[in-house]
Design a protein that fits this description.
two-stranded antiparallel sheet, 14 helices, 8 strands, alpha+beta, about 45% helix
Length: about 300
Amino acid sequence: MSKYLSKVASPAVLNRAWQQVHQNHKIWCADLSREAMQKDLIQHVGILSQELLAGTYRPEPMCCRNVLAKGVLCRSTLRDQMVQHAILEILEPICEFASSCQSKELYCLAMVREWVEEGYIWLGMANIKDCLETIPYEIVLKNLQKICGDKALVNIIRALIEQPDETKKGCGLPPGMLLTPFLQEVHLYLFDILLQNRQIPAVRVADDVIVFAEEKTGAENALDLLDKPLKKLGLTLNSETQVIRSSFLHKFRGQRLPNCPKRQFVLGNSSYWQNMLSWFKDKQALSKIGETDQKFVPGRIRVSKLPF
């Protein structure tokens, strides 16, 4: 008996999964509406559980359509959405790194602020080119099987991925599928590890990457260093989206960043700024800088070089 698949197919997990999807205006399956299914809810959920345990479960064809500015979006039937919610409930606690988008953004915001406060005030920003379309999902599933050790459950996920296009050859995650963000995080977590091993100061949210440097040229060089680890994962950086910006002028997910670093730093030759050095030790005095008759120039800040 598959350890995690038996949990996915359990009545308690499927019941909680139904609570997540029962208000969606979708059909239960190809030949059964939601209203008709609800009349015999226990029976149909029981049949779904038996199919999962027996290995006879097969996903229904997904409804895919073009959405302006978002490309192709795919939507599963209620039956398949229910299965995906149940899978997420079981696998997300195991894969803690693939946390929800909201908690991930809060963590990344804290990391961005920490880097800026450490003096890395230049941000290099870009995203991964066609991330969902180019992710090699066979590698994702292979790594997922190493984590959970449940081949039967991984095969169900493979069937859900390949349902929109059974001619796929190992690349691409269906946009709009409930499991897609989770599987994307499983794969891109390897990218986070590669960056950490190379001591590249960076933060990633989904397919958006931010690198940090103490000078503008350092941020440009840091972006160039992303190509090699991405190629190892079968991905590339989108050069058209690359932007270099000072943290003084940037908001991360609508949140302002600290005005200047906490650490001691050396300013330019301006005697005015040398006299103002003591102001930077007091957090409350930082807000008064904008009220002076001199303009703060981030480019004058000099601290130690990047660790790469």
